[in-house]
Each structure stands twice: as structure tokens, then as C-alpha cells.
Write a structure and sequence with these properties.
The structure is a homodimer. Chain A is α/β, with parallel strands linked by helices. Chain A has 35 helices and 31 strands. In chain A, strand 27, helix 28 and strand 28 form a beta-alpha-beta unit. In chain A, helix 13 runs antiparallel to helix 14, helix 22 runs antiparallel to helix 23 and helix 27 packs parallel to helix 28. The longest helix of chain A has 25 residues. Chains A and B meet through helix 24, helix 26, helix 28, helix 29 and helix 31 of A and helix 24, helix 26, helix 28, helix 29 and helix 31 of B.
């Protein structure tokens, strides 16, 4: 016969933590604790299967379930030595929902079930405390009627408040027995009036009504929505936990408290928590009394404290992780009510994982599995003092694009940022949006704040790349560039005003909040010796363990030697993406770029390109050198040329001004008009789908020739100096084989010519980005020529969805809120769509070139979920920003461990 | 033993037209004609296999081939009754290349091979015409040395010219024997000087050198490039045709001519062509003498004419198609040199195909197969008188976006177009580009000319939709909107000047060239009775035969009742795409649209949307009515909202003007600035990837509700009036199932509500466009909810390639010219990329919904090659502009016939 109810108690446990499917998380947990001898108030769990049966039968508790509940109730009464409804020694129980996954959308707890006019007297007599019994009864009527009978909570609160008012009291606990009698009378009248029936006096009715209410709560609209948003199946059902009540407010030898087995902020091995004597759990939460540090228990109730130490230590050993526990002491007797793995900061996570291994409690494998990769971020970014932060006014909130904390004086242009920085100021660059023109200003700033743009906007990508805090798409601020101010609500912030931004939360705050670089960053920068930093030792220890398990290589997206050096310090095994265009925005070079674009003859164009060669050669020389013989993937020129020119509308306005004011000379106007003509000719309706990537290289082969020459001259020079160099040249934005072949021919021709000239030997490969659906679809053909693939998942996501991330704000937020998109595909790989194309590309590519090397270099290369997916696809490496390398190393290891 | 050489001649033919692979096109054709008893000068073909052997052996004629050539030469000498190199009766031959596919990149013809110092005398004696023999010899030295010995042609031309100059002559044929002797002497000296060896006197050497030269010409860079561009495999090789010379210039009973078995312009059954007595083929081409109409032969050489009539009639019967032939008469004897299916106009193609069936010569199936679908276009669009056109100055040339001819006075704005038209003028609308704002002006114009934009630009799409001639991307014209002029080279064209545009060729011409609507259009418009038009009868006859074979249904893209009526007249079986947004640009409605977009509260937005309801209801009422019970697919709102607002830069300039001039009131400026703010907020970097399509419908469900209400109220009204209505509601731009489900829920809810209210019964379906790669990839899921798919291949191509067609001009032309793209994917479906996604979508979609109806409604729906592909994929219908319906009907039939 099928079993629907499971008992837990001393010497009689029918479940364990492996049974979350049928007992729910809470039920499984209570059973597990009981099973290992932890003192838990006895009780039983009505299973999720009973719930599904109940729902299938249209909301009726089946007889078979009803019988089993009654049988288990009898067992519980025996274990508790009390009886439900008994007028002398009544059993009181709590009733709680508990599904497989924690679901805030579901039923609240009902406490003190079992009280009625008769048993409340028994409880009063038995406890010798009539006020306590009345207070319990009042709470039951309130909770039960709200949850089971749909009597609005606020009506009870009104009654309670008016009673306190009439007695001139401000706290519930000040109510006298007489006042409580009156409250109970009013409560009961309210129930009769609103629910149309009396508060049930039959305690068995109370129990079955409560169980039904829990089951019904599975299908409330709120719960259904929650499941939809969190991808929880609808057919899991919820369990119901019925447990003997224990009371921390039973007198001077009773208490209640919460704690962690280790410090969840820094991971230190010490019991950490707080408690209150003669109090209930909700008193700790309500903050009406100040709890004491848990260590004080040693003085106040030493025997109990001793027992608690032993139990929590056992729990930690048993669960092999830091525990977050709740307990109650009733009349000197300790009961554990809950234990679960404790939430912790990144620093604590690393410390605890490494400590547990060093204490011999867990394996390296377990340690590597238990740290959330994203939490490593917290160890890398500057931090605000939380307490100080709470004293500052919040101006607005935007997208948390690049984590970390920064404070600085507001500037509105990149040039100002540089100038102020040179004057020794700290600045926050505030822009409508940023463009490659702003790079120098972003680099000079503490952090970046933009009014528009999304998580892959220029500001966001460059912010993460630079490891600088950035908040983007902050619609709450309105820029007035002319006046050099921005408006946030009623507050006007001017140039030079201090603001602080928290890139981890998206908060923009007024004033200066002090920050400090994290200890690990200070070590990486050489400001602290590594042997002096315990957290750095643990951090690198954990990552070195991760390296033992992972299959994927981890590379960095890095454009400069400085990026490369940091990436290398974080364990990068090469550069997966070096963008060549950022190098072009340098002040010295920009004039040649502009002249090249505006050239009206091929000769003039060539002349200006040639002037760029020495710059680029030096760039690559430095980059190769910094990577010390590891592979360096260099992408040829990618962005549309008009990015290097002024904006059309700005020119139009300038010309109009000069004309209308009569201040412009005809020559100046003519010159601007000619520039405008060229800008208009180059401007595009949809630049993302325009003349960029290899399309530039195909139409202007001389640019690619120059870049190839710079790369191979730098490589050959280093080879002559005895250094190892592994260049991998990557062609962007191909749609198929012919474009790739066209570019490869140029690159190989120049490479062979330079290598021959130097008499050097350079191992190099030529491969391509897969960032256009058609490139993925025709991967079999492309791989005939391409020696490696690297997924550019930013563009691939945009084209596969037909969505520009930067333009999409108007609907993307709506899509995420309404669950049309389960996740933001620009943050984690969309497995159903983009992932399908990636899978296709890997399979087809390797069908023609079995040893094809495949990597990923979009933002997703630093996203743990995406890394797990990439591991499953059989990629060779992921490439991410220098600061994401630790995350990627850990996620890549977990990808392997989660499968095994 | 393998055979390398094939003879053709009377009573001895070793090949036939089925052997193009090894004999090449020309060789197979000569063999075929010989085989059916047509008098062809005898000769032999050295096979393509011999060519490949020659190339494989490094450019040496293998002995086995050499032997076989000599054997066949002997046969030829026997058949001709002359011997190569014989001093009395020398055989002269022509040597021509001929591969499977016609390749202009290859070797020119060598005529008169076999002449040397000795045989030229024999030829002089035998022909009794020494001048003739010398002229033949001179031509051989020239051609042979150019082709075989690489002596530049122009050096020979110099010698010839200086000889004519010194004798004071202007024509070659005036040269005396003495002058020719001198020319030959100079030619031979030139060869010795440049080639370093004498012109070969050994005639067998001449022959083998010529054969080698043909083989070598297969691998010239020019030929390789040509093959690359035309997707001709490199390993086909070329054949060599060696054929006895015949001379049309042998005397007064000799002649040469060309002709067609029917009139290639209008298809009339009459011999059509021209000839010259005592002349060579090149004389007809050179135009130094005026040829006579072929009918004159009946008078001048009646016996030969009689024979020609018989032979060409046989050829037509044999090839079952109009023949384009060449012939030579030598001394009263007729030789056919070439026959091939004749090129013809669309009108002729239709006439001939139908006539041939009615004459009992061919089957309906054959008739349907032999007409090029695109050629039907020519029957539909207005035409220029060609002779008159040649008298007008060409101003510029652009992309031939919408075929047909139009003349009108130049206007530069849509409003002017309407105003001038209302004043009874014919206008050509000239714009930088057009936008939906210009629709009324486009509609009022004879034709459209834009300086920018590509084949799927707004002007191009709307032009084809409206059946109006359009030239787009005409970079040769420079607009000056302020002065209301455009510049084309040195010519300035002002408002009101007449120009003529030929949308079939892309030519822009100065002045008014008269046009006339085609006869078929006049019938469709009811201006001519159908029974009075023979061409209309043949046109519809051919299409009705096509209908017997095709599997695909053909529908129209039509937004207005007028479009729908024309589509219906052309045989549309329904509307495959009715865009609802064009309806919004109407002057009466645009204010409500603008107010809706600018609304700052939902109530205001709703209020303005509600005002649109009656307009939309009437739109749909008229559309349903025009389609008489056939299915009508209506797409919900698609374009980004900012299309309905003024442009950002225009507003910025206007504000600047008002401010700087001090002429604007503060209120006016404030108002404009507020509008600008809204426009900026709505403006997008990449509107194609922005807030449009169903993304609008998801975020502003009230718009979709209004549209659904309008559709179903119109449908119910008609149902009440006893009309049949089949609405199919189509959701645009989905990326996956959740967006579709969201929109479908709204549509079905409104539909059921309206249908219930009317008490009507309406069969409707809700489906989606597949125009985003992700929609195709997730088609299995989408089809769980969607009742039909319609491929939007314009957007699907843009997103699959990551290319915006309108922006791509800078590189797309380069890609097409350099063969990086074999075809323009915006004109014909890219089978490797986009096609693969389509295939996937059909298969996956039908895996979850086996009876899923699938169509296509992008521009490719009217492209014959794409239609064949769609038929192969198992689509249910194609939808194209009304004027493309005949093309689609024919192409759909050919798709079936070509496979069977």
C-alpha cells in the first residue's frame, strides 16, 4: 500500500534528506536531523504525493490520507506525551508547507494549532501562565483565520491596535490577560462576521482544514507565477509538516536563537549568532528586544550551550558545510528547528571551502563544487563600507553592469575625466552612452555611469574589461550636457559633485563613500606580498584544485599588455581575444585613421595606413611579450569606420549654427559640409548589420595587410630575441567560407613574406569568429579553411534573436519580468536558440576538421552557466575578461564535477 | 580503347546533342545537326577528356590523341574532297573552342587554318580569285599569331592601317592584291620579330598548335575568373572543333546570313532575319554594308531560300522551339553553321509557347517549361519606344528595382507629387530615400528614383508592390533639396524638368519618352476587353496550363482592396501578407498614431488607439470583400514606432535655427524640445533589431487588441451579409514560442468575444512569421501553438547574414563582383544558409504539427529560383506582389516539371 505520511522523532524516523521529492525540502531536513540524533520536536510530514492526489480529487483529502494522518497523529501524541484537544495536557502543533524547492509564494506557517476554548484552559493550567496561553490562542485565531478562512490579516491587526490604543499601550506584550480575553472575543466575532462561520473548536477539523489550506496554496496565482518565473514544474506538489510546538517563551529557562557554525562574512571558524532568553522566534526578528551574542549562552545557560556546540559541530560534519541553524530552548531543553547550508560572502565561501579540506572534513572535489563561481567577484572588486553606505542618499538605480564600488566627482566628458584625473582628482564619468572615443576618459575614471545602454553596451563591456565599476541604462538620471548637470528626481547634480556608484547593485548614491581595493587585487597588483595574504593563499589554492578537474582552457579577452599581465596573474592560459581597434583610438593615431577614412584616393588611404604600421607593431610586440609564449588570438579590424568620425547630427547642428549666426566663414562651412557629406555617406541605418568586421577587410584589403605585417614583424622580432610567440589570427564576422578564404589568403601571404624576410620560424594559425548565424550553419565548409573557431556570442545572440541589446531596453525588461525570456540571453547563453547553432557549428566544423580548436570569446565566456554549457559542447577553451578568469576556472571545474 | 575525337559530317556522325559533357555545347550541336541531315560543313571534335589529359600531362598533346586527330583529319579530307596542305586543292579549316557551358573568357576562333605560302597559291588558282586567297591568308596570320603566338592584335591592326593610309583607302576590302602582298610580308616580319620564330608553314603544326592553344585557354586567368563567378567547375575542360571552311564571299552565288524561325520580338510565325550576298559573317556584324531582309532571298536565290525554309522548319520541329540560326551559301550551296534556341521577349515567349502547342508541335508541359518566368514581367510593365529612347541623353544609372518605363516631371517631395498630380501633371518622385511617410506621393507618381537604398529598400519594395517603375541607389545623382534640383554629372535637373526612367535597366534619361501600359495591364484594368486581346488570351492560357502542374498555391502580398483586386485578376488564391501599418500612414489617421505614441498615460494611449478602430475595421471590411472568400493573412503591427515621428536630426536643426535666429517663441522651442526628447527616447541605433514586430504587441497589448477587434468585427459584419471570410492572423518577428503565445492569447480572446457578440461563425487561424533565426531553430515548439508559418525571408536573410541590405551597398556590390556571394541573397534565397534554416523550420514545425501550413511572403516569394526551392521544401504556398503572381504561377509549375 502506498505511504502518504512520514513520521520523524526520536527513535522513529521514516524519511531522510534524499526524499525531498516526496517530503519537500523542510520535511526531508527535519527527518534527516531526527535521524542523526539531533533533538528535533517530533512530528510528521504529509507527502507531496498526497497533495497531488488531493488536487486530482478536486480538493478533497482522500480517506486513505486522512486515515494515515490520524495514525501518525496518534504516534506524535505518544512521542510528545500529550494529546491533541486534551483539556488537561493538550498537544499543540505547527503546520507548515514545504515543497521540493523553496517557494515564497506559498502558505505561511500556522502555529499553536490545537487550541480552543477548552484546551486553552488546559494550557494555562499546565504552564501556570494564563497570559501565555491566551496569547497563543489569540495568535492561532489570527493566523488560522487569515490563512485558512481568508479573513484579512489587517482586520485582526485593527482590533489589536484599537485595544492597545484604548489601554494606552504600545507593545503587544504589555496586554493584560483581561485585554487578551477581549481581543479573543473580538477576533471570534470578526471570524463569524467575515467567514460566516465560527472559528473551529474541533481540533481535528483545525488540522485537516490547515492541511487542505497548505495543499490549496500550491495553486494560488502567486505561486503559479513564481513557479513560471523560476522554471519549477507545476506537478511537484507541496508537502505539509505537522510538528509539536515548543516554546522559547515558556519562562526564564527558555530561549530562542539563530546562528551559523562559522562566520558567514569572512569564513572564520567560530560559532556566530544571537539569542534571546524567554522569547519566541518572531521576537528576534521583530527587533523589539536586542538579542545577545550567542557566546553569552556559555555564561547564561552553560549546559545548553555545551550541547548546542556539540550538535552544531555534528551538523557541520554531517552536511560537510557551514550550517545556518535555528533553535529553541524550552524549560532548559534544547530543540533544533532548522538547519541548512549557510549563505556566505565570496570571501567566506573560499575560506570555508579551503579550511574544510585542510581540516580533513571534505575532499578537494567537494570544495571546488561548493563555491558559487560568481561569488568570487566579491573578492576582486573595491568595496563600500556597508554601514557608511546606508547613511548616503540613493539618487537612482540602473543596470549593475560591472561590479564593484567607486566614488568620485562627476564629469561629463572623457577629456574632462582625463584632465581632472591629471589634477589628482577621482572622477566618475557620467555619459548618455559611451563610445570608443571615450576610452581614455573611462580609463581615467573610478567608475562609469550611463543613462542608456544595456548589459553589453560599450560602457558595460569596457567597464568589465577594465575591472571598473559601471552602471548603465540608468533611466532615473536625465542629462543636461549643456549645463553640465544631471537630474535625479528633484536633485540636481553638477560637475564636480561627489557621487558613489555600486556596480554590484546598480545603486547611485550622493556623496563620497570610501572604498578600498580588495585584498586579492592588491596582491595581484603587487601592493601586498602574496605570502602576507591568507585570503590570497586560499583563493589560489581553491583555483589550483579547480584546475585539476577542468577540461576547458581559460583565456583572457585583453587588448593591452596591462590587461594581459593581470590576466596572466589570474591564471589565463593565453589571450582568446585581442581587439585591434581599441589601439586605434589613441590620440596619436586617430588622425591617421580619420585621414585614411576620408581619403579620396587609394594612394592617400594607403599612405595613412602605412603610418599606423609602427604603432600596431609595437602594440603586438608588447602583447606577445606579456603573454610569455602563451597563445595570443588577435582579431583583425572589426568596428564600422564611422565610429572614428564625428556624429552626423552634431555636424548638422554645428553647420546650422555657423550659418544662422553668420559667424562661420564660407570656407569653414564648406569644410564642415564636405565632412558631413562623407559622414552621411558612411552613416548606416543599422550599423550593427553594416560595413564592419571582415567586410572592411574584404573591401579594404590594405588594412588587413598592414595588420598582418605588424603582427608578424612583431612576432619575428621576438623570435629573434629568443622569445616564444604563438599568434592566432582571427577574422571577425564572416558569413561563410568565401569571406574567410579571402582574408586568410592575405594574412598567409603577408605572414610568409615577413617570416621569410626575417628568416624566423613562427607557428601561427588563422581562424575565425562564429558570430553570425550563417557562419554557424555553414561551419562544415568554413572549417575546411579555418584552423579554429571562436564563438562571438554577443553578436551571435543579437543576430539569432534579431535583437540589438542596446536598443532593446524598451522591451527586454518587459520580457524578463513577464517570463517571456527565462533569462537574459545577453548574460547567459540561450541554449535553445544560440546554443543549438553553437552545437551545430561544433559538430559540422569537426566533421571536416576533426581537430578543430573551438573557443568562445563573447561575454558569455565569463558566465558560469554558459561555461558549463560550453564544456558539454566539447569546446577547447573559454575566453573572458581578466577579472573573470578565476570565475571561469572554477566554473569549468564544476562543469566536469557536476556531470560526474 | 578510349575515344578522344568524334567526327561529324554527312553519313558519318559520332556524336549528338546529349554529349555536351565530352563534345562541349558547340560540338554536340554540330553533331546533332549533321545527324538529322542538316547540311553542315564536315569536321571533328577533340573531346574535353582529351583536354583534361593534355592539361594533366603538363601541356603536351598525348600521342594517342595526336594519332586520333590525324585519323579524323584524313576522314575530313575525304569528306571535303580536299587535303590539308595540298598545293592544288587545299583544305582550310576553322578551329574553335567549345566547352559544356558557353564561356566568353576563352579562345577566339581561328579561321582559314591550312594556308601557307604554298597553299595560298593553290587556293588562288582553285578559286580563280587571288585577292580572296591573299585576304584569307592575311586573316589567318593575324588571328593565329594573336591567339597562338601571343603577338598583340593591335600590332597587326597598325600595319593594316598604315597600309590603307599610305594608299589613301578607308576600307579593308579596297586593298589591292599588291597591297595585301605587302601586308602579308609585314605581318610575317612582325611575327618573326615578336614571337621570335616564323609563322609556321607546316600546316599540321598549325593544327596542333591551334589545338594546344584552345586547351591552354581553359586555364587563362580570365577563364578561371569567369568560371568562378559563374560557378562552372574547373575540371570540365574544353573541346576543340575543327571544321571545313566555307566561304560566303566566294562570289556572286555565295552569301551569309542569320535568322530566327519566328519573330523574337512578338512571336509571330514568320522567318525573321537578314543576309548579305558575297560576304562573310563578320561583314554582317561590322555594319559596313547594310544586310537585306531574309525574305529577299526568295527573289535573289530562290532555290537556296526554299531549302533554308525547309531546313529551319525541320530544325524548329526537331528542337521544338524557335531557332536562332547562322548559315553560309558557297557557290549556291547552303551550309548551316549554327542553330540554337532563340532568345525572345516575354511576349514572344508566351506567344511561341502557346502557338507551338496549338500547332501540335509540343505538349502543354513543354510549353510551360520553356517560358522563363521572369520574362513575363515584360508583358506587364509600361514600355518605352526603343527607337525614341535612343535619342535621349542618359543622365545616370542606378539599381533596376522595379521594372517598367515611366516619364514625368521631377518633384522632390511626396506632397508636391500629390499636388502636381492633382493639377493633372505626371511626376517622377526623386528622393534621397523614401519612407512610409512618402506613400501618398509614391502612389501619385509615375515612377520613383532614389539616390540611396538597395533592392529591398522602401522605394524598391513599394515600387514593386505598386507595380511602379523604380530606380534606387542611383549614386550618380546628387540631390540638393534646398534648391530643389539634382546634379547628374555636369547636368542640373530642376523641379518640373522632364525625365524618363527605365526600371527594367536602371537608366535615367533626360526628357519625356512616351510610354504605354502593356496590353495585358490594360485588360486587367478593364481598359481593353479580354476577348479583344490575343496576347492576353495566350498569357492566361499558358498560366492555366501551369496551374495544372503546380503544387504550390500562389497568394499575393496586398494591403489595399485595389491591390487585392489586381492580384485576384492575376489569379491569386488568397492574400499571403496584408500589412496593417501602411493603413496607418493615411493623413486622417496619422495624428492619432502620433498622439498614441506621444501619450504619457495609458489612458491617453488607449483613447487614441480606439479612434483608429473604425478606420481599421473599414480597411479589413474592404479587403475581405475584394478577396471573395479566399484566405486573407493579416499581419499585426510591425514597424518601429519612430517611423511615424519626425527625424531626430531634422528636429535638432529646426530647434537650432529657431534658437540662433531668435525667431522661435520660447513656447514653440519648448514644444519642439519635448518632441525631440520623445523622439530621442524612441530612436534606436539599430532599428531593424529594435522595438518592432510582436515586441510592440507584447509591450502594448492594447494595439493588438484594437487590430484583432477591427479584423473580427469586419469579418462578422461580412458574415452577417452572407459573405465568406477566411481571416488568418499573423504575428510578426517572433523569436520563440512565448512571444507567440502571448499574442495569440490576446487575439483569440478578442476574436471569441467579438464572434460571440455578433453570433457569427468565423473560421480563423493564428500563425506566425518565421523571420528571425531563433524562430526557425525553435520551430518545433512554436508549431505547438502556431497554426501556420510564413517565412519572412527579407528579415530572415538580413539576420542570418547579419547584413542590412540597405546599409550594405558599400560591400554587397563588391561581394557580388568578386564572387564572394554567388548571388544576391536578397533577390534569390540563399540555399546554403537561409535555406537550411527554412528546411529545419519546416521539418521541426511539422514534427509537432503534421498539418502545419507553411508559406513564404518575403520578396523571394516572387523569385522563380526561390519558388523552385520552396516547392522542394514542401511549402503550401508562396505569396508575392500582385504583379508577380503570373511569374510565381509559372515558376511553381516549372518546379514540379523540372523534377519529373
Amino acid at each position: 500500500m502506498k505511504k502518504y505520511v512520514y513520521f520523524f522523532g526520536k527513535d522513529n524516523v521514516e524519511g531522510n534528506r534524499g526524499m525531498r521529492d516526496i517530503l519537500g525540502g523542510k520535511g526531508a531536513n527535519l527527518a534527516e536531523m531526527s535521524g542523526i540524533g539531533v533533538p528535533v520536536p517530533p512530528g510528521f510530514t504529509v507527502s507531496t504525493e498526497a497533495c497531488n492526489l488531493y488536487l486530482a480529487e478536486g480538493g478533497r483529502i482522500p480517506d486513505v490520507v486522512r486515515e494515515e494522518i490520524l495514525t501518525h497523529l496518534a504516534k506524535l501524541e505518544k512521542a510528545a506525551g500529550r494529546t491533541l484537544g486534551d483539556s488537561e495536557n493538550p498537544l499543540l502543533v505547527s503546520v507548515r508547507s514545504g515543497s521540493k524547492f523553496s517557494m515564497p509564494g506559498m502558505m505561511d506557517t500556522i502555529l499553536n494549532l490545537g487550541l480552543n476554548e477548552k484546551t486553552v484552559k488546559g494550557l494555562a493550567a499546565k504552564s501556570g501562565n494564563r497570559r501565555f496561553a491566551l496569547d497563543c490562542y489569540r495568535r492561532l485565531i489570527h493566523m488560522f483565520s487569515d490563512v485558512v478562512l481568508d479573513v484579512p490579516k489587517k482586520e485582526f491587526e485593527k482590533i489589536l491596535k484599537s485595544r492597545k490604543d484604548s489601554e494606552g499601550l504600545s507593545n503587544d506584550f504589555e496586554l493584560t490577560e483581561e485585554a487578551l480575553d477581549a481581543v479573543i472575543r473580538d477576533y471570534k466575532a470578526l471570524v463569524q462576521k467575515i467567514a460566516g462561520k465560527d472559528f473551529p473548536q474541533n481540533v481535528t477539523d483545525q488540522l485537516f482544514l490547515a492541511v487542505s489550506a497548505v495543499f490549496n496554496s500550491w495553486n494560488t496565482p502567486r505561486a503559479i507565477t513564481y513557479r513560471k518565473l523560476n522554471h519549477i514544474p507545476n506537478d511537484l506538489g507541496t508537502a505539509v509538516n505537522v510538528q509539536m510546538m515548543v516554546f522559547g517563551n515558556f519562562g526564564e529557562t527558555s530561549a530562542t536563537g539563530v546562528g551559523f557554525t562559522r562566520n558567514p562574512a569572512n569564513g572564520a571558524k567560530e560559532l556566530y549568532g544571537e539569542y534571546l532568553m524567554n522569547a519566541q522566534g518572531e521576537d528576534v526578528v521583530a527587533g523589539t528586544r536586542t538579542p545577545s551574542p550567542i557566546q553569552n549562552m556559555a555564561r547564561e545557560i552553560p549546559v545548553v550551550f555545551e550541547e548546542l556546540l556539540k550538535i552544531t559541530s555534528n551538523l557541520e560534519n554531517h552536511y560537510q558545510d557551514i550550517q545556518d541553524f535555528e533553535f529553541t530552548v524550552q524549560e532548559g531543553r534544547l530543540y533544533m528547528l532548522q538547519t541548512r547550508n549557510g549563505k556566505r560572502t565570496g570571501q567566506a565561501a573560499v575560506t570555508i571551502a579551503v579550511d574544510l579540506v585542510e581540516e580533513g572534513l571534505i575532499s578537494k572535489k567537494k570544495a571546488v563544487s561548493m563555491v558559487e563561481p560568481d561569488s568570487l567577484n566579491q573578492l576582486l572588486h573595491p568595496v563600500f563600507d556597508l554601514e557608511e553606505k546606508s547613511r548616503h542618499e540613493e539618487l537612482a538605480k540602473g543596470l549593475a553592469a560591472s561590479p564593484g564600488a567607486a566614488a568620485g566627482q562627476v564629469v561629463f566628458t572623457a577629456d574632462d575625466a582625463v584632465e581632472w584625473k591629471n589634477r589628482g582628482k577621482k572622477v566618475i564619468l557620467v555619459r548618455g552612452e559611451t563610445s570608443p572615443d571615450d576610452i581614455h576618459g573611462m580609463s581615467a575614471s573610478q567608475g562609469i555611469l550611463t543613462a542608456t545602454g544595456g548589459m553589453t553596451s560599450h560602457a558595460a563591456v569596457v567597464g568589465r574589461q577594465m575591472g571598473k565599476p559601471a552602471i548603465v541604462g540608468c533611466g532615473g538620471i536625465v542629462l543636461n550636457e549643456e549645463k553640465q548637470t544631471f537630474q535625479a528626481g528633484s536633485r540636481t547634480v553638477s560637475q564636480g559633485d561627489w557621487i558613489s556608484i555600486d556596480g554590484t547593485t546598480g545603486e547611485v548614491l550622493l556623496g563620497e563613500i570610501k572604498t578600498r581595493p580588495s585584498e586579492i587585487i592588491q596582491v595581484v597588483r603587487g601592493e601586498i606580498k602574496s605570502e602576507d595574504s591568507e585570503i590570497f593563499r586560499k583563493f589560489t589554492t581553491l583555483l589550483s584544485w579547480a584546475d585539476e578537474f577542468r577540461r576547458l582552457d581559460v583565456r583572457a579577452n585583453a587588448d593591452t599588455p596591462e590587461d594581459a599581465r593581470i590576466a596572466f596573474a589570474f591564471g589565463a592560459q593565453g589571450i582568446g581575444l585581442a581587439r585591434t581597434e581599441h589601439m586605434f583610438f589613441d590620440r596619436e593615431r586617430l588622425p591617421f585613421i580619420k585621414a585614411m577614412i576620408l581619403a579620396d584616393t587609394e594612394a592617400k588611404r594607403k599612405e595613412n595606413i602605412d603610418k599606423l604600421l609602427p604603432f600596431q607593431r609595437q602594440d603586438f610586440y608588447d602583447l606577445f611579450k606579456a603573454m610569455k609564449g602563451n597563445p595570443v588570438t588577435i582579431r583583425t579590424l572589426d568596428p564600422p569606420l564611422h565610429e572614428f568620425l564625428p556624429k552626423k547630427e552634431d555636424l548638422m547642428v554645428e553647420i546650422t549654427e555657423l550659418k544662422v549666426s553668420g559667424k562661420g566663414s564660407p570656407e569653414k562651412i564648406k569644410e564642415l559640409e564636405q565632412l558631413l557629406e562623407r559622414v552621411v555617406a558612411l552613416s548606416e541605418f543599422n550599423p550593427m548589420l553594416g560595413h564592419r568586421g571582415c567586410r572592411l577587410g574584404v573591401t579594404f584589403p590594405e588594412i588587413i595587410e598592414m595588420q598582418a605585417r605588424a603582427i608578424f614583424e612583431a612576432a619575428c622580432q621576438l623570435a629573434k630575441e629568443g622569445e616564444k610567440v604563438l599568434p592566432e589570427i582571427m577574422v571577425p564576422l564572416i558569413g561563410g567560407k568565401p569571406e574567410f578564404t579571402n582574408q586568410k589568403e592575405i594574412i598567409v601571404r603577408v605572414a610568409e613574406e615577413v617570416i621569410a624576410r626575417f628568416g624566423a620560424r613562427i607557428d601561427y594559425t588563422v581562424g575565425t569568429m562564429i558570430e553570425i548565424p550563417r557562419a554557424a550553419i555553414t561551419a562544415a565548409e568554413v572549417a575546411e579553411e579555418a584552423e579554429f573557431f571562436s564563438f562571438g556570442t554577443n553578436d551571435l545572440t543579437q543576430t539569432t534573436f534579431g535583437v540589438s541589446r542596446d536598443d532593446g531596453a524598451a522591451f527586454i525588461n518587459h520580457y524578463l519580468i513577464h517570463g517571456i525570456w527565462p533569462d537574459d540571453p545577453f548574460q547567459t547563453v540561450d541554449i535553445k536558440g544560440v546554443g543549438e547553432l553553437m552545437k551545430w557549428a561544433v559538430e559540422k566544423g569537426r566533421s571536416t576538421r576533426p581537430d578543430l580548436k573551438v573557443g568562445i570569446c563573447g561575454v558569455h565566456g565569463g558566465d558560469p552557466r554558459s561555461i558549463v554549457f560550453c564544456d558539454g559542447l566539447g569546446l577547447n577553451y573559454v575566453s573572458c575578461s581578466a577579472y573573470q578568469i578565476p570565475i571561469a576556472r572554477l566554473a569549468a571545474a564544476q562543469a566536469v564535477l557536476n556531470l560526474s
